[in-house]
Amino acid sequence: MSLIGDGFLTIFSFVFLISIVVVIHELGHYWAGRFCGVHAEAFSMGFGPTLFSWRDKRGTVWRVAALPLGGYVKFLGDAGAASEPDADKLAQLRAQMGEAADRCYHFKPIWQRAFITAAGPIANFILAITIFAALSLTLGNRELQPVVGAVVADSPADNAGIRVGDRVVAIDGREVRAFNDIMRIVISGGTSELAVDIERDGTLIPLQIVAARNTVEDEFGGTRRLPQLGIQAFSDPVVGGVEPGSPAALAGFEPGDRIASLDGLPVASFQQFSQLVVAADGVVPVEIERDGQAMTLTVSPRETPDGATNVSPAYARLGLVSGGRLIEYRRYNPIEAVGYGISQTGAVVSTTVDYVTNIITGRASPELLNGPLGIATAAGQVAQRSIEGHSSAFDAARALLVNLINLAGVLSVGLGLVNLLPIPILDGGHLVYYGYEAVARRPLSMQAQALGFRVGLVFVLGLMLVATWNDLNYLLGQIF
């Protein structure tokens, strides 16, 4: 795809994601306000100049703005002094508003104000559950099994004694159902010691492992420093494809061949075979099984082509493609789908909370925090990956929509959690103020609230600077 095409796809994907998660967040506030009898003066989808607008029968102005990067809902009285209310200011405001004060947000009971405030993040969690449940119900779920296919030499996993064929059952007491669960828990755990339970030949073995932070290059040329155990997912040592004219093709390899050994060294997985290929030199014998018959082929690995750092050595040097990984496909009924949606949302919440906690305690680096630029980059990468390798525009569009919706579910959980942080200017900060008001039976003073908002603003801006710095470092790493 061209540079212009990539840029358009990235912008479209980013706007699609932000529009969904932010508008749903604001709709949560809006519907909770309606339930509590609060009048919404305006609901804006986007920021900046108004493209078009209309007024509904309740008097709410709905507008679509030129910059589709979010939105907001404006309740009656939600401006000026009412944004930092104390008893005196509220009394003045009530006198000014007269009977309309009954529909004003700030004159509602504490529990209603707290409910309206919390409804935004709650809507994000409901959106995530709905997305994960709907995808599992309509498409099923493909899970890469948490079986070890290769162990990197001198890695934390190697030093702990993990072997090819081991199944990871749990990490820090959390069940591992798919290989992605391993990566998710390890990354969120940083460099803290992890209790890893593995199953080997029917026996459960507990291990203690501290992940090592390594620089990892992705398929887009960017690099990130990620905590890793040093394991790869299992692939059956079966040939799935042979590149025409490659050393493997010249040696006589065929799809379906099961690899038993290379140069006398036994092979238990395709990844292990690929690791052995790295050290292979000259003509090497490869024992295979074809149609139940054992045979030996001799092959001469070629030099690894430039730019093949993210390509399997078995393909780069021999031209062999794996026959496939251990994937479990499952369909869900409606009840199971809802349960899956809740569990997936809970898993994202748990991972995020663990990661933030480990940042605070110094066991994880904040370099994985991303801002709008990072979200746009991730959206563009997901979009590009989605449309590649499809024979028809319909299949590409379908994959793009499914993957973006799934990413929207993850992003929705993140937005909900961020807004619940007890920081003034965020929903969580307002909830803290309401908690104080409930206990003290009066609002926090306007001066204290103003100070809190300033401190919160500085904190949020600092967080955005860190996130933007991370985003820029990643993008610059793709160029230089």
UniProtKB/TrEMBL annotation:
EC number: 3.4.24.-
PDZ domain residues: 135-177, 213-292
Membrane disposition: Multi-pass membrane protein
Enzyme class: hydrolase
One Pfam family linked to the record: Peptidase_M50
Residues spanning the membrane: 7-25, 115-137, 400-421, 451-470
Cofactor(s) essential for the protein: Zn(2+)
Gene3D superfamilies in the cross-refs: 2.30.42.10
Name used for this protein in its record: Zinc metalloprotease
Species for this entry: Maricaulis maris (strain MCS10)
